[in-house]
Write a structure and sequence with these properties.
InterPro entries: Homeodomain-like_sf (IPR009057), HTH_RpiR (IPR000281), RpiR-like (IPR047640), RpiR-like_SIS (IPR035472), SIS_dom (IPR001347), SIS_dom_sf (IPR046348), WH-like_DNA-bd_sf (IPR036388). It is built from 14 helices and 5 strands. By secondary structure, the protein is an alpha/beta fold. The chain folds into 2 domains: 80 residues, Winged helix-like DNA-binding domain superfamily/Winged helix DNA-binding domain (Arc Repressor Mutant, subunit A, Orthogonal Bundle), CATH 1.10.10; 159 residues, Glucose-6-phosphate isomerase like protein, domain 1 (Rossmann fold, 3-Layer(aba) Sandwich). A 5-stranded parallel sheet has the order 2-1-3-4-5, sandwiched between helices. The radius of gyration is 21 Å and the shape is globular.
């Protein structure tokens, strides 16, 4: 888990996987952490119109031993003087100025929660694997594919040759050709895309190092990967999961990129050469 015990960040990571009953409990907890901390497990279950076992399961899914530990974390959260992580959703008739403000809050909260969720030791291990890699393969489907392409573009610019697969078939094909010494990084916010998880399993079977960047800590993808970097996001109304997670995933990409850049002696020269090549073409136009 992250280096800070932040129930908000844990909720953000768990939300995509919650059952309807657990989601009702989570809504009460997110909207009023200090108030929820005053409730017994029976009172919280009654308010959420569910069972006490559903409350306990939610606590455990967030990484706590049980409801008493979650209750203590909620009490501590309630004493903090800061802006709530869960902002009001965007409505159909919202003015664009208000939309801009809410999106700024959404993106900021997601990145701050990601900073708390992403384990530094895991990030360092991923950077070390990328620096030493014979070959790097990046996979993601849909919006996660755009994140994979962004990382490929960054790493290629500093001389680390990367392949990228943005369809399910390509992900499976590319993963099956990896070898020991290679690294596969898979992006999926839910972590439940079957082909992406299967690609990670195939790459691991071939001896490659596998990395999952996902919001699903207990997802198929997280279970299949050797290293899991958690990201935060929230799907709500007009704001889809892909939209919610994109900035958090890109934050992880940028962090990994800087880590590789710092630890690769040839990278600054490669970056300068690629910059000059593009700049020269523009000067000649």
């Amino acid at each position: 888990m992250a280096r800070h015990d932040d129930v908000r960040a844990r909720l953000l990571a768990a939300l995509p996987q919650l059952s309807p009953a657990a989601s009702r409990v989570a809504v009460i907890v997110r909207d009023d952490p200090s108030g929820a901390a005053q409730l017994t497990v029976s009172e919280l279950a009654e308010r959420a119109e569910t069972s006490t076992s559903a409350v306990v399961r939610l606590a455990k899914s967030l990484g706590y031993e049980g409801y008493p530990q979650l209750r203590l974390a909620l009490a501590a959260t309630g004493t903090e003087q800061r802006t709530p992580v869960f902002a009001t959703d965007i409505t159909a008739d919202e003015a664009l100025a208000k939309v801009l403000h809410k999106l700024t809050v959404f993106e900021t909260e997601g990145m701050l929660a990601t900073e708390r969720l992403a384990d530094p030791e895991t990030m360092a291990a991923v950077v070390a694997a990328l620096v030493a890699a014979r070959r790097v393969e990046l996979i993601g489907v849909g919006a996660s594919g755009l994140v994979a392409m962004d990382m490929a573009q960054k790493l290629n610019r500093i001389g680390l040759w990367c392949g990228v697969a943005t369809s399910e078939d390509d992900a499976l094909v590319h993963a099956s050709l990896l070898q020991p010494g290679d690294v596969l990084v898979a992006f999926s916010y839910s972590g439940q895309t079957a082909a992406v998880a299967e690609a990670v399993r195939r790459a691991a079977h071939e001896g490659a190092t596998t990395v999952a960047v996902t919001g699903g800590s207990g997802s198929k993808l997280a279970r299949a990967a050797e290293h899991t970097v958690l990201v935060a996001g929230r799907e709500d109304g007009f704001r889809s999961a892909a939209m919610a997670s994109r900035m958090s995933q890109l934050l992880v990409v940028d962090t990994l990129y800087i880590g590789v850049l710092q630890r690769t002696p040839s990278a600054p020269k490669a970056l300068r050469r690629t910059y000059d090549a593009v700049a020269q073409r523009r000067r000649n136009e």
